[in-house]
Each structure stands twice: as C-alpha cells, then as structure tokens.
Amino acid sequence: MKKIIFLTICCSFLFFNPLNAQKKTLIATASMMADMAENIAGDLIEIKYIVPRGQDPHLYKPTPSDVIMVQKADLIIVNGLTFEGWIAKLIDNSGSSAETVTITKGIKPIESSKYANSFDPHAWMDVNQVLTYIENIRNALIVLLPEHELIFRENHDIYAAKLKELDAFIFEEIKKIPESQRILITSHDAFAYYGRRYGLRLEAIVGISTEAEVQSSDIIRVHKVIKESNVPAIFMESTINPKILQQIAKDSDVVIGGELYADSLGDKNSPASTYLDMLRSNTITIVEGLTKKGISKSEKLETKDSINPIFLYGIFILIFILILFFIVKKLNKL
Ligand SMILES: [Zn+2]
Q1: 283: CA distance to ligand 1 center in Å?
Q2: Which of 41, 178, 207, 243 is the most buried (most CB within 10 A)?
Q3: From ligand 1's centre to the CA of 202, what distance in Å?
Q4: Are 128 and 36 contained in the same domain?
Q5: Residue 58 Cα to ligand 1 middle (Å)
Q6: pLDDT grade for 3, boundaries at 50, 70 and 90
Q7: How far does residue 211's CA lie from ligand 1's centre (Å)?
C-alpha cells in the first residue's frame, strides 16, 4: 500500500510539476529554424520541430503524431514562401489556436525564374537574411513570454554577433576559389540566396522544389555548363537521392565535391548539427571542391596516349646492346 502511495506521489509530481506545466512549447517546421529559436529561447521554452533531420521538407507528409504535437503548441514558426506547403492543412487538422509566425517576413525574396509570382523559399542560405529570421523569432518569443524579454534580447544579440562572424568567414573563404570556377552545381535550386550573397553562379538539376520531375533538358543544360566552365566538382545534397547527380558526374568526367546541407540540419554527430555549423560545413566543402584544378578530358586523353620517356629510353638501350652484340659476334667470326 505504501508503495502505491509513493508511486502515485511520484507520478503526480512528474505530470503536475509546476516547472513542466509552465514551460511553453514552440514548434518549428524544419530543424534549422528550431535551432535558431533554441539559441534565443535558451531553456525557457520547449522547442520541437516537425520534419525530422535528414528528411526533405518539400515532400514531407505529416504523421498523426505531428497533429498532436501541433495541437499542444503555444507558438508555431514557419519559413513561408511555400517551403512547407503542407503546414496550413496540418494546423487546420490539429485545431490549434497557437500564433503562427512567418519568420521570413521582411526579407528580400528571390523570385522564381520559372514561375510567375512564386518565390524561392531557401532564404536561410544567406546568413545576412537570417538576421531578419532571428529578429522575427525574438519578437514572437517576447509576445509569448514578455516577462523574459531581457533574456531573449540578450540571447538574440549574442547569436546575431555569431551570424555576422559567420557571414564574414564565408566571404573570405569564397575568395579562395578562382573567379572562373565560382559555379555551384547541385541537385536542386537551394543555393540561389547563397550565390547572390557570396558571389557564386548557380546551376541545379531541378528547380526550387524537389517535387519537380527531372527533365532530360535539365540534364543537357547541366552537362553544357560543366563542359563550358571546366568546373572541377559538382555537389550532392543530404536530403536528396544522389543517383542522377552521380550519373552526370560520371558522364561529364567531374568529381562529386561532397555533400551539402540545404533543407535540413545533419544528425547530431554530423558536421552540420547546428545552423551555424551547416553553413560553415557547406562553405568548406564548396571551397575544397571548387579549388581543385579542373582536369579536362583532352588532358586525360593526352596522358593516356603519350608513352613514358623512361620506357622509351630503356628500349633504345636494349636495341643498342643487341646491335653491339651482333657486331662483336660478326667480328669474332672473321
Ligand atoms: Zn529546398
């Protein structure tokens, strides 16, 4: 009996712990936005995200547990610009009345070159734009918990300083790539903001959403760019099947420069476990890949066709010895 009373007290403490009951919950759609929020909220708010790390938010299908998660949310943050096409329906199905904040509000979006009135959602790839993201997050947190305004402001300023430092680091790193090789070829068009900010030309196999089917004209276009620019490497993305990219690399005689993180953070033990690390890791991979000296097909063929000079020299000595041998033999006969 004593045991039962003890267990009941323990359970009620766990479920009705005043600290747990007080903690509000913020739900982000993607892992990188949750990480930004965590940097500002500290441990004052519980932060969760819907799309698991490594999964593609463009193609994500919400689960029944997502409905429950959204139902319990006190604040929902979304990227907007059609990044999470499924979120409105998910919020609707959950019956949640939580405030939904679009954290790209105030940024300068890139308009899609293919579709009218459609914008590129990948604005977090420009660290300078993320200053607007975190300002929107900070303001939303202050509305949610006004009593902690000072802490949110302080955390925001510390994080903003780190973002500015990262932004400067990327500019310096990109300078190491020869100007003619500042071309970034990836699976889908997630790097337009990165290219606009840091000075890289972008080419992707598919458009700004991974939902689009790969057309043979896209593959021909990418092959043409590789051939014309003599770019040494193309890049895989962590959330996208690399099959087509690997085939293009093989056919065009270029290397895969590594894996980039665009629409999700990597696992906790990956080089992209936080937003800051994700952009740092991408930059290092891009610079390493694009600073390799391009080896053209003709150069490769030349090396294959030409004969090693040491080998030629050996044959020459062998012929000379043979001639000498015959001369000596003839002289001996005389
Ligand atoms: Zn994307």
Answers
A1: 17
A2: 41
A3: 14
A4: yes
A5: 6
A6: low
A7: 9
% residues pLDDT > 70 (the chain): 85
Q: How far is the CA of 194 from the centre of ligand 1 (A)?
A: 13
pLDDT in tens, 222-238: 888 888 888 899 998 88
| 93 neighbors 44 (Cβ within 8 angstroms) | no
Q: Which residues contact 145 (CB under 8 A, 6 or more apart)?
A: 24, 44, 45, 152
The answer on pLDDT for 334 being more than 90 is no
Q: Which residues surround ligand 1, an ion (CB under 5 A)?
A: 190, 263
Q: Which of 265, 217, 214 is nearest to 244 (CA)?
A: 214
The larger pLDDT score, comparing residue 214 to residue 43, is at 43
Q: How many CB atoms lie within 10 A of CB 135?
A: 16
What does 52-81 look like in DSSP terms, one character per residue? Answer: PTTS-GGG----HHHHHHHHT-SEEEE--T
**How close is the Cα of 173 to the center of ligand 1, in Å?**
24
CB 229 within 8 A of CB 251: no
User: How many domains is the chain built from?
Assistant: 2
Centre of ligand 1 from the C-alpha of residue 145, in Å: 32
Residue 168 CA from chain centroid, whole number: 19
Domain membership of residue 255 (yes or no) is yes
Question: Does residue 315 form part of some domain?
Answer: no
Report how far ligand 1's centroid is from the alpha carbon of 261 (Å): 10
Tens of pLDDT, residues 152-178: 999 999 999 999 999 999 999 999 999
Structural domain that includes position 152: 15-172
187 C-alpha vs ligand 1 centroid, how far in Å?
10
Q: Are residues 207 and 150 in the same domain?
A: no
